[in-house]
Amino acid sequence: MSAAVRFGIVGGGWRAEFFLRIAAALPERFEVAGIVVRSPDKAEAFRRKWNVPAFGSTREMLAAADAAFVVVSVPRSAAPDVLRELNAAGMPALCETPPAQTLEEMTKLYRSVGSQARIQVAEQYPFQPNHAARLAVAGSGKLGRVTLAEVSAAHDYHGIVLLRRFLGVGFENAAIRGMSFRSPITEGPGRDGPPATHRVVESVQTIAFFDFGDRLGMYDFTGDQYFSWIRSPRLLVRGEAGEINNFEVRYLRDYRSPVETQLRRVHAGHDGNLEGFHLKAILCGDEYVYRNEFAPGRLADDELAIAECLSRMADYAAGGPGFYSLAEACQDHYLGLLMHQAAKSGETVVSQTQIWSA
Known about the structure:
Dihydrodipicolinate Reductase, domain 2; 11-stranded mixed beta sheet; 17 strands; globular; alpha/beta
């Protein structure tokens, strides 16, 4: 068995702990070589809780830690400077989404590091098991050429990357229309757990259409959906010969032979099964369209997706292929910025070719 991949982390926020949890759950696959946390008290807390070396600066960690790559998990306003520092040091970087805050900052970042920088971005949503299974079905040809994708599963760039991947869109420009709708909702769980009291709060829903000419993406999301008990994700993908509607799959074997089946999650740990408790695979009929390569680690879907990012980043740092480039990340965030502009103005906004897509 090969040695665990060692990686560093810059940042000590909520998202950084995902990488620490994954390494703790899969010690045979991943090891945290060090973490950069500027607060001495917080650094000591990380040492005690996670048993990892903590440093006060990126330079200190690079000098002391033997890492294959570094995860950049800092606010989007701070990410460009960290990426430039790592690029100058020749260290491959896996950046959290998005890589910068504004179009101007993304342009400046891309111009300063260039297309040859060894940077990938940890966009996990295409690797979440349910989405990965759907993408496998859509890419199998069963649906024919996909022309419509409706995604209500994640905000901004996360939702947009799913739209692009299902539609097979790269850096093509789009005409974007949008609107926002506000409504009351009973407050549900958040990052810190269930609500303490009954409270009705405002929910903001953003709806947008991305017209790529011969393909249409429909975005619909409210931030409550991430944790809410009463707001569920939805997804519809349609091609000339079939569709995926959440977990239902319909397609034509030939022009008069329709097939209806479902995406079915297969778990270990039920009844007398003693393999542990984890997702094993997802089936479409009798076909495996997703296999959990991190079993028997007991990880949530989002953690499995981030583990996939780490695994692919290890391959990339060793000279393998990329999986979500800085250019793609900039494009998805750019389209998200335009979406909010369209929703606010009520006017159609047309994207323009940017430096990363020229």
